[in-house]
Amino acid sequence: MRTQKIVFALLMIITLLCVLPLFFILVLLIYHSLPVLNLRFLLDYPREGMRAGGIFPALVGTLYLALGTAIVSLPLGVITAIYLNEYAPKGRIARLIRIAIVNLAGVPSVVYGLFGLALFVTLFHFGVSLIAGIFTLSILVLPIVITAAEEGLRSVPMSFREASLALGATRWQTIRRVVLPNALPGIATGAILALSRAAGETAPILFTCAAFYLPRLPKSPFDEIMALPYHVYVISTQVPHAPLSIQYGATVVLMGLVFILNTVAILWRMRLRRVKKW
Amino acid sequence: MKQRSVWESFIEKVIFIGGISGIVFLFLIFAFLFKESFLFFFQYPWKDFFGGTQWYPTSEPPRFGLLPLLAGSLVVTLGAIAISVPLGIACAIYISEVAPPWVREIFKPLMELIAAIPSVVLGFIGLVVLVPFLKQVFNLPTGLSALAGSITLAFMALPTITSISEDALTVLPREYKEASLALGATHWQTIYHILLPAAKSGIIAAIMLGLGRAIGETMAVLMVTGNAAIIPYSFLQPVRTMTATIAIEMGEIVRGGLHYRALFAIGLFLFIITFTVNLIADWVIQRQKRVSG
C-alpha cells in the first residue's frame, strides 16, 4: 500500500510537470511581449526590414488562409462524414476511407508543402498564391473536420432517423432536414479546429503561398501573402537583430489566436457532451 | 416520385465521390511525390543517395548523400521518443486510472491544448529558452543541438502518446480490473501486472504514432537543431533532419532541377516511412479493439 501511495504521487507529479511548460510558455510570451502588445502593433505594417512596426499584413494573410481553408475543407469533410456515418458505415470502402484518413493525418506537414507545390503551384499554374495555400491546408485539415463531423453525426440518435424515414422521407431528406441540423453543433467544433490548425501551420505554406516580406494586402486569391507563422519564423531566424519584443509580440498573437480557437472548441464540445437534449 | 429517386441517386453519387476524396488525396500525394522524384534516380545512382555520407547539393558535381540527414532525423526522433514515452505512459496511467474524474476533466483538455501549440511557436520558445540553457549547462558554442530538437519534439509527441495510451487503458474490459482487485491485489499491482500488459499493443501503437509525428515534424526542429548536415556522434552536436532540409532548400532552387528532384525524393521517403508507421499502428489498434471489444 505504501508503494502504491508513492507511485501514485510520483505519477501525479510527472503529469503536472508535463503540462507545466504550457503555462510557462504562456506566461513567458505574455510577459515579454507586453511592451509592444497594443492595437498599433496589430494594425501597423512592418517597417525597417521587419525590425519595427507591426504585423498587420501577416495577421490579415493568416485570417484569409484560415477562413479559406475552413470554407473549402468543411463541405468535403462533412460529405465524407455523411458517407461514413449514414451511407456505408460498415462496408469495405468505409474501412479503406478510414485508413486513408488516419494516414492523411500522419503525412508530415512539409510533405503537404511539396504536394501543394507540385500540384497547385506548378501543375494548376496558381503560382505561389493564397489559393494554393488554401487548397494545400484544406487537405491537411480534412481529417480533423471529418473526425469532428462524424462525432456530430453519431450524436444524433438513431430514432430520429427512423422516425423521419417512417414518415416517408427519403434518405437524403432525412439527412438534410433531421440529421444535419442536429449534428451542426458538433460540425462547428470541426470548423473551429480547422481554422486553428490552418492558422498555425508553417511548413505547408513555405513554398505554396507565404511571402518573406510584402508590405501590402493581397488583392486577389492569386497574390502571395504574408502569414503569421512564417513571419514568426522569419523574424526569429532570418532577420538579424530583430528586436526580441517584436518576435515575442508576433508569437504571442499567433499563440493567442490558436489558443482562443481551441479553447472555444474544447469548451463547446464539453457542453455538447454534457447537455444532451435527448 | 420518379424525379425524386433520380435526385436521391444523384445525391448518393455525390456523397460517395466526396466520401472517397480522402483516398484520392492520399493517392495523389503519393503520385505527385513519385512523379517529381523518380527521374532523380535515373540521373543519380540510388546507391549514392541511400549510402552517401555527404549532402553537398551545390558542389560540383553535387552530392546527394542521404545518410547525414537520415542520421539527423533518427537521432532527434529517438531522443524525443526516449523522453516522451515514459512520461506519456505515466501521464496516461495517472489520467485514466489514478486521477479523480474532475482532475481528469482538466488534464485531458490541457493535453489537447499542448497538441495545438503551433510548431513554429515551440521552435521560437526552444530558440529563446532551451537553446541558451543548453549552451550554458553543457558549455556548447551555440546550444543548437540534437538534444534541443529532441526535447522540443518530446513535448510535441507527448499529447499523442498520452491520449492513445489512455484510450488503450480505458477500453480494457472492466472484468480484468475487478478480478484482480477481488483477488486482493492493490490498485497499483493491478495497473502494473494486469492493465499495462493487457494494453500493451495499444501503447505500442501510441509510441509508433508519436514516432511518426516526431519524424515528420519540421519547423520546431529546424529552428533549434543548428542544421549542420553531418553525421552526429553525440546528442550535443548540431544536426540537420530530412524535413528541415526540404524546408530550407526548396525555397531557393530551380523547379525541375536535380536538386529539386532530390528534395522530392526525400519527401517520398518520408511519406513511405510515416505511411508504414501509421498503417501498422492502425492495424494494432484495430486488432486490440477486436480482442477487447
In short:
Chain A is mainly alpha-helical. Chain A is built from ten helices and two strands.
Could you say what the CATH topology of chain A is called?
A: MetI-like fold
Order of helices and strands of chain B: HHHHEEHHHHHHHHHH
How would you describe the oligomerization state of the chains in this entry? heterodimer
Strand content of chain B: under 5%
The secondary structure category of chain B is: mainly alpha
Number of strands of chain A: 2
Count of alpha/pi helices of chain A? 10
Give me the CATH architecture of chain A, please.
Orthogonal Bundle
Which percent range fits the helix content of chain A?
A: over 70%
CATH architecture of the largest domain in chain B: Orthogonal Bundle
SSE blueprint and pairings:
The complex is a heterodimer of chains A (278) and B (293).
Chain A: H1 2-33, H2 39-43, E1 46-47, E2 52-53, H3 56-87, H4 92-106, H5 109-123, H6 130-154, H7 158-166, H8 171-200, H9 228-238, H10 244-274
Antiparallel strand pairs in A: 1-2
Helix pairs in contact in A: 1-10, 3-6, 3-8, 3-9, 4-6, 5-6, 6-8, 7-8, 8-10, 9-10
Chain B: H1 2-19, H2 21-37, H3 40-43, H4 46-51, E1 55-56, E2 63-64, H5 67-98, H6 101-116, H7 119-138, H8 146-170, H9 174-182, H10 187-198, H11 200-216, H12 219-224, H13 242-249, H14 258-292
Antiparallel strand pairs in B: 1-2
Protein architecture, described:
- The complex is a heterodimer of chains A (278) and B (293).
- Chain A is 74% helix and 1% strand.
- Chain A has one domain: MetI-like (MetI-like fold).
- Chain A is mainly alpha-helical and 278 residues long.
- Chain A is built from ten helices and two strands.
- Chain B has two domains: 2-37; 46-292, Orthogonal Bundle (MetI-like fold), CATH 1.10.3720.
- Chain B is built from 14 helices and two strands, in the order ααααββαααααααααα.
- The chains are: A mainly alpha (278), B mainly alpha (293).
- Chains A and B meet through helix 1, helix 3, helix 4, helix 5 and helix 6 of A and helix 1, helix 2, helix 5, helix 6 and helix 7 of B.
